[in-house]
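Predict fold of Histidinol-phosphate aminotransferase; 367 aa.
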Amino acid sequence: MDTASASPATLDTVMERIRPGVRNESPYLVGAPPRAEVKLNQNESPYDLPPALKAELIETLNDLAFNRYPAEQPSDLAEALAVHNDVSPEQVLVGNGSNELTYLFGLAFIAPDTPVVLPAPMFSLYEKVARLHDADLTTIPPRDDLHFDIDALVAAVTRTNAAMTVLTTPNNPTGLALPPSDLERVLQATPGIVVIDEAYVEFNEHPPATELLDAYPNLIILRTLSKAFGLAGLRLGYLMAHESVVTELMKARLPFMVDRFSEAVGRTVLQHPDLLNERVQQLKAHTRHLVDALSARSDVTTVPTQANFVLFAPQTKHADAVQDALAERGVLVRNMGGYDALQGYLRVCAGTETENKAFLDALDAVL
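Predicted 3D structure, encoded as tokens:
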């Protein structure tokens, strides 16, 4: 082989080998000051597991073989999640957080120029995955009240013959939820995959989408244990779908994505439903308190919510300035200005009673 004419690599030639779809993206970074006494910017649960339960899990950790691979699919956890949701274990696929499963959707469903329909504003990772796989992306702006425009969505999935459509309910970042009738309208409008992301389902007043699984083989429901379950640090998520769809998704899936300890923690937490219910009720109460306190202010506009967070817009100061001033007081909230429809909005998630008071006191001082 004649290599005399080959040129050595330069950084420019290396960068040219990276797909433009990747180079045009930005990394997903939350960004936060190093010091934060009150962290209300990532929709996390403020509650860690009780010490007694952690002690039990430490004993479990001692019994785990670190030198052995976990199962390709954590079947015991999948079975526990199936019981929790009253579905078949064959309908459950467990992931390293729901974000990992979102990337799986790109691998399984999106080739270049595949039609994908996404409403806005919505968790930005879905749009990023679509762009990374060079999808033919149609984005549907919201109504004036920030609810998804279901009429426009139905028209778009019909017009484009969308291979994949995503609906988040309750929606991050708005907190607004869709009734089952709206979900069914989209499911009936397309033979393509419809992903319903229910990351905040425990806080939703509407029935869960699992009631629709038997009727719609094109439905995939995405869930997480990061929010109400309080396991954001362990990365556990799962999806539910027709068992034939789950079988095909396993073919595109990286193996060994859920480690042995995370599986053990997930199984253990599912054995304590009273703890989950108690904390969900506490977070609902804390969220209502935030909504009431913010709604009572004449200098703030608040969006109704069925999640564990509240979207609000300061009226007398720029949102960037308010966010920075709160951070200087040790309170972190999320700036939603990256979404076209949410310029001027901030998002705060419900913390403990003490954390909520600290936020409201700091907001008083800032505004």
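The radius of gyration is 22 Å.
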